[in-house]
Design a protein that fits this description.
single chain, 287 residues, alpha+beta, 2 domains, nine-stranded antiparallel sheet, 18 strands, globular
């Protein structure tokens, strides 16, 4: 690593990451009208948030900053790709990386990678179906829509909460912290789809006050001391259609999508640094 990369890593590593995120949670859920409106206006101005897309454009209607941050969009501004077999983007954001899972390794940034086993909580059996498959990592900035949706229709098999660090997931930190996404706290949801298993990995980050799913509610906080797993059998099956909401970040972070070998081919123009919008085509199933 360069001296700059080392400093970014070390400085963030010594921060009380969970305590700072807990404080941010209290601030973002504060319902003081003066405070929350000031906070909302600053974010809109600084990041260029397009409130014309919001289902509720009036900031006074939001009871807290977090309520604004996880705002709904007008349905027509994010049309879902209708092409048969198309894989839809699960989020607004920017593609951090995309490509093959090579012998279990997932590329993070130049000179850095992590394993699917580590990403999925250290369980080799859970990771094996994704060996030599494909992945994409999508970063959500503070200006983006922060609800996450299904790339394909799927039936939930398993959810895993993996405790960890809360490094930032911005570009500079992604370049600096080895195995970043396998270090940070995360929630993994594994679905069965028409082309086999699909893993959606919701990665926490500094100031991300919570991660939640539509079937469970808030998964974290509180964080756990060990990996926690929930299994979903037929009697409590959860099936979500392509484009349907599956979860959300309360503050910005990253989602990683994994598919197995010979199941999905990414679109030719779907590559690192490309901005994406929820619902647009990012790939095609291989039938």
């Amino acid at each position: 690593m360069t001296i700059k990369d080392t400093l970014i890593y070390k400085l963030q590593d010594v921060l009380p990451q969970h305590a700072l995120s807990g404080l941010m949670s209290k601030l973002t859920h504060c319902e003081n009208k003066i405070w929350k409106n000031l906070f909302i206006r600053q974010i809109i101005k600084h990041y260029g948030v397009n409130m014309d897309e919001a289902l509720e454009p009036d900031i006074n209607a939001y009871k807290s900053f977090n309520h604004f941050f996880t705002r709904q969009l007008k349905p027509e501004v994010r049309p879902l790709v209708s092409e048969l077999g198309a894989v839809a983007s699960p989020a607004d954001g920017e593609v951090s990386q995309t490509g093959q899972i090579t012998n279990g390794d997932i590329f993070q940034a130049k000179g850095k990678s992590f394993t699917a086993v580590d990403l999925l909580g250290g369980d080799a059996e859970r990771a094996e179906p994704f060996n030599n498959g494909v992945f994409t990592t999508i970063y959500l900035s503070p200006k983006d829509y922060h609800r996450l949706h299904m790339p394909l229709t799927g039936t939930l098999r398993e959810m895993v909460h993996i405790p960890g660090k809360l490094f930032s997931v911005n570009t500079a930190t992604t370049r600096s912290v080895p195995g970043l996404f396998a270090k940070n706290e995360r929630v993994v949801a594994i679905f069965d789809t028409e082309v086999g298993p699909m893993a959606l990995v919701l990665v926490g980050a500094i100031f991300v006050s919570s991660i939640e799913t539509v079937w469970h509610g808030v998964v974290t906080p509180p964080t756990a001391s060990t990996v926690m797993t929930w299994f979903y059998q037929k009697k409590k099956a959860v099936t979500l259609q392509k484009g349907e909401e599956m979860g959300r970040f309360n503050m910005g972070s990253t989602i990683i999508v994994l598919f197995g070998k010979d199941s999905v081919k990414w679109a030719e123009d779907f590559s690192a640094d490309k901005p994406v919008k929820l619902g647009e085509k990012i790939g095609q199933v291989i039938l």
